[in-house]
Amino acid sequence: MKTYFPKVDRIAYEGPDSRNPMAFRHYNPDEEVMGKPMREHLRFAVCFWHTFKGLGADPFGPGSMIREWLQPDDPMDAARETMHAAFEFFTKLGVEFWCFHDRDIAPEAGGDLAETNRRLDEIVDLAEQLQNDRGMKLLWGTTNAFSNRRFMAGASTNPSPEVFAWAGAQVKKAMELTHRLGGEGYVFWGGREGYETLLNTDLKRETDHLARFLHMAVDYKKKLGFKGPLYIEPKPKEPTKHQYDFDAQSVHGFLVKNGLDREFLLNIEANHATLAMHDFQHELEYAAANGMLGSVDANIGDLLLGWDTDQFPTSIYDATRAMYTILRSGGFTTGGLNFDAHVRRQSIDPEDLFYGHVAGMDTFARALKAAANMIADGVFADFVKQRYAGWDGEFGRRIENGELGFEELEAHVLEHGEPELQSGRQEMLEHRFNDYV
């Protein structure tokens, strides 16, 4: 059988003293943390698109990488080779999950939907066989309804009902394939669901159409018998000036307005949080606080650049804050940590794909242990509880229960006078946080 990564053996755990960049120092899949193996906490997944189709292109030039699996002239031969390369990579890296867009795994046949679907079926036959052979699982599938020129003005928010229909047909097929492969969820990311200028945009009609589209997806999910959650992945901008799925809070509000909040969870991406001028933890915390946290795209953005750089996550601080929120919310059920990340333009060797993923997996393994220690010690939870202790007293409880109005609040102030203030202790808490990382 052809080998695409001959220089790499299966990545092993060698412990924190190892200096081998092709070994895990912190990710030991069988090590128990809070009564559960690391692999079950983290549920790592590799994305198909960046990892096997990304060639390092950027706004200033085409790709810089040559991938053996993409060399065949026949696009279906290339698709088959890429799938084999992917499963060799998954196996050697030691992950249990993968994710894909429909157009990543099989080439589109122009405007011939029937032939395009036939190609998808053929490649999914192969993926299903490889999943069974390698013991792999699909974390989630999704649809690329943004690259083809027909989607230049959006998919479900397009001014043309003909394009809306294409998007629906494409999502229908992708949902079927995800279901067939045992996918644990299905993601909607509005690649071009937004606008560039309001001079040519009917914003209300477009967002109404987006809601109608998502209702159709819910209906078809039930018809399929697909039991996994549907996710929406917030992103504020790029490629459009304004995306309708701007951030966790705006997506949640949109879902509530349209009666969809019980049908969807959120897939939070770190770099998208950055673009929305939020911390990664903020987006996770908002989603968790509202029962909407489903899955995570694990990457990081460059704070000095204004676009989605999708770098591998290597910040222990960011990852620890993220895992602290994830663990306190109950951890992953169907979701997980998908590395929606790509190697840098200058990292041109196939082995660099392993270096990036190993670094990301070790980062989150360290973060998991640090967050577990934070929870066990209770330093931060205890401080927060004490800071809000007044709300647990009779006066605070009566406000929260809706028993008091402005008149009662005024009477309370007249009786008790100026409130006693307390320090937020931010510097002390940040110092304590450093003890864990």
UniProtKB/TrEMBL annotation:
Names of the cofactor(s): Mg(2+)
Amino-acid positions noted as binding Mg(2+) 1 in the UniProt annotation, renumbered to this chain: E233, E269, D297, D340
One annotated GO biological process: D-xylose metabolic process
Transmembrane stretches, start-end: none
Residues involved in Mg(2+) 2 binding: E269, H272, D308, D310
Domain of life: Bacteria
Active-site feature positions: H101, D104
Principal cellular location given in the protein's record: cytoplasm
Cofactor info, note text: Binds 2 magnesium ions per subunit.
An example Gene Ontology molecular-function term: xylose isomerase activity
Similarity annotation: Belongs to the xylose isomerase family.
Subunit structure: Homotetramer.
Protein name: Xylose isomerase
Organism, as annotated: Kiritimatiella glycovorans
